[in-house]
Amino acid sequence: MSFETPLPPYNASDPYATFVNSSCFDLLLIEMVPLGYRLAEELAAKRGGVPMNVDEEEQREIALRRVDSIGYRVGQGLVERFSRDRPRFNDTLDMIKFLCKDMWTLVFRKQIDNLKTNHRGVYVLTDNSFRPLSRMSMSSSSEAVIRAQPFLWFPCGVIRGALASMGINATVQAETSELPVATFQIKTIAAQP
To answer: CB neighbours of 108 closer than 8 A, spacing ≥ 6?
Structure first.
C-alpha cells in the first residue's frame, strides 16, 4: 500500500503493489474508532446470547483492544512486505529507525520528527504534525486532546505489530498534549529465559 510513486526500497515493478488515495486512508482512520465502539456495544449487548450491562470504561477498553488489534495486524503485514528486500537488522535501534523513517513514511507520508532513547529499551517517537490529528478541531483545546486520544490506538497497534514482526516484544503508549502533536513511547520487553 502506498500513496505516491514508490521510492526505494519499494519495488515499483512489484506485481502485488497496491496504491491507495490518501483521502481514502484518512477517512478509514476517522471511521475506525467509531467502528471499535460499535463493535464493543454489539458485544456488550449480546455476550453469549445474554444481554450484558457494560460500563463506559469497559466499553472503551473493548474498543481500544479492537482498534489496537487491527493496527497490530496492519503493522505485521507492512513489515513482512516492505522489509523483505532489506538487509537483516543488526539491533533494536536499527529496527526502530526503520519504523521511524521507512514505515512511517509509507503509512503517514512523513518521517517521525524526533526519536529519543535511553539505550535501555525505551524509545520516544514524536510526530509534530501527525496526519490523523491534523484536521481535528474542538471548541476548547482540552476537549480536543481528550477526544483525539482514541485515534492514537491504531498507530500504537501498527507500531506493536511492526516490532513484533521483527522479533521485538514491546508495549506502546501514545499521548498528545496539543494537536496535532503525537508522542509514542515504546518499551521493549525482555524475553523470559
So the answer is: 127, 130, 131, 132, 155
Question: DSSP 3-state assignment of 21?
Answer: coil
pLDDT beyond 70 at 107: yes
* Long-range contacts of the stretch 141-144 (C-beta < 8 A, 24+): 141/178, 141/179, 144/179
CA distance 75 to 165: 8
Give yes or no for a contact between 154 and 71, defined as CB atoms under 8 angstroms apart.
Answer: yes
Distance of alpha carbon 108 from its chain centroid, rounded? 10
CB-CB neighbours of 185 under 10 Å: 17
Residue among 63, 83, 92, 82 nearest 154 (CA): 63
- pTM for the full predicted model: 0.82
